[in-house]
Specification:
Layout: H1 14-47, H2 50-80, H3 88-93, H4 98-106, H5 112-137, H6 142-168
Helix pairs in contact: 1-2, 1-4, 1-5, 2-6, 4-5, 5-6
């Protein structure tokens, strides 16, 4: 295993340089995804009403801070890996994922089933991204794999809670 921390990018084997670049691009996508999820959850929480809205709001309000916390952890890894954490200008120019588009669409909705379905899609998308990151970095960056594994656990828990909530609202 090549230890990539403390080793200049240029002195790494080309194959590891490419994997590290891919890893950082995936981390940046995850970073933006966490921030965008928090923003969309905030919009959903502020637009909900009624008893079902209260249940969803009680779940989502703490999730907003947790999603921002995930973004902070990912930003720290990007920095530790020797790359700049992108600014909001890059965020605005980045492509919005399909699941995030669904969250944006339901942010003003009162349709709880559509909201929960969109949240589950965003969580599933995040889980898939984190599994890809873990698979990529297991052979050369166990620290990033560890950080992302913890975030993955949180996303799995969020998904299961939303799945139970959608079942209880049927």
């Amino acid at each position: 295993m090549v230890h990539i921390i403390g080793t200049s990018h240029e002195t790494l084997p080309i194959e590891i340089q490419k994997k590290k670049d891919t890893l950082v691009n995936l981390l940046i996508a995850a970073y933006f995804g966490e921030i965008e999820t928090a923003i969309n959850y905030q919009a959903i929480v502020r637009n909900l009403d009624g008893h079902s809205g209260l249940m969803l709001r009680q779940f989502l309000e703490p999730e907003i801070e947790e999603e921002f916390g995930h973004a902070k952890q990912i930003a720290k890894r990007i920095s530790i890996l020797g790359f700049n954490v992108p600014s909001s200008a890059v965020f605005r120019d980045s492509e919005v994922s399909p699941a995030q588009k669904r969250l944006q669409t339901v942010a003003g909705s009162k349709d709880f089933h559509a909201i929960i379905s969109a949240i589950k899609a965003a969580e599933r998308e995040a889980m898939n991204l984190y599994v890809s990151i873990i698979s990529l970095c297991e052979e050369f960056d166990l620290s990033t794999a560890d950080v992302v594994t913890h975030i993955l656990r949180d996303e799995e828990e969020h998904f299961l809670i939303m799945d139970r909530l959608s079942t209880s609202l049927r």
